[in-house]
């Protein structure tokens, strides 16, 4: 094969790879994705319900296995850090440390929340495709006659959807966590390192903020 043919073949292969990457989209519709994630997590919590009583570590492990792979922690980090996520206020190392810490506490928060919902039924609201970039899918959990809406804001990661923010009963958790983090920075005298080390987002406080 001469040099010209090799160059032409290489260019053709590269262009095909770039095109397939650029136009890759999630195979599942947003409500199908959210239902799959919710059903998988709730099924595990129900199946192991007896083992989970007074065992937060077990709940955390199940949530990690069934929810963590579908969370876009980088997007969540940017939302929660707010202006502190910019180069003007933080370094890449600080943002990476915040993401690691935040991901751990996020698992604990969602573990506690979903453990409460594990014995409840839910309905998925009719989906309206108004935002293809960040679609929102809402589940209404039926908790002893009370309807608790939980909305999942998604982001297109090319091959699958991921969850970038969650809204519970009209409360934007990302925004509430951002307010909590800003307060933590203030309590630590403006030290971002101390705030990152000491930040403990509290979903229950956030949801009861009304």
Automatic annotation (TrEMBL):
It comes from the Bacteria. Keywords: Signal. The keyword Translocase does not apply. It holds the Pfam family MlaC. Residues 1-24 form the signal peptide. InterPro entries: MlaC/ttg2D, Tgt2/MlaC_sf. This is Phospholipid transport system substrate-binding protein. It comes from Acinetobacter kyonggiensis.
């Amino acid at each position: 094969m001469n040099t010209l043919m090799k160059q032409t073949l290489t260019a053709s292969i590269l262009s095909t790879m770039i095109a397939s990457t650029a136009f890759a989209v999630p195979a599942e519709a947003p409500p199908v994705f959210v239902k799959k994630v919710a059903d998988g997590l709730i099924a595990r919590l129900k199946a192991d319900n007896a083992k989970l009583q007074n065992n937060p570590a077990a709940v955390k492990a199940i949530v990690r296995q069934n929810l963590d792979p579908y969370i876009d922690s980088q997007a969540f980090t940017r939302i929660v850090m707010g202006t502190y996520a910019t180069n003007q206020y933080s370094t890449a190392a600080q943002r990476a440390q915040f993401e690691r810490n935040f991901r751990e506490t996020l698992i604990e928060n969602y573990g506690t929340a979903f453990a409460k919902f594990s014995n409840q039924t839910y309905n998925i609201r009719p989906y309206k495709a108004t935002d293809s970039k960040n679609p929102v899918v809402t589940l209404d959990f039926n908790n002893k006659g009370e309807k608790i809406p939980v909305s999942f804001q998604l982001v297109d990661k090319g091959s699958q959807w991921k969850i970038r923010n969650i809204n519970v009963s009209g409360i934007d958790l990302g925004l509430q966590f951002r307010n909590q983090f800003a307060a933590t920075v203030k309590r630590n005298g403006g030290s971002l390192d101390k705030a990152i080390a000491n930040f403990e987002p509290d979903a229950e406080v956030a949801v009861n903020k009304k």
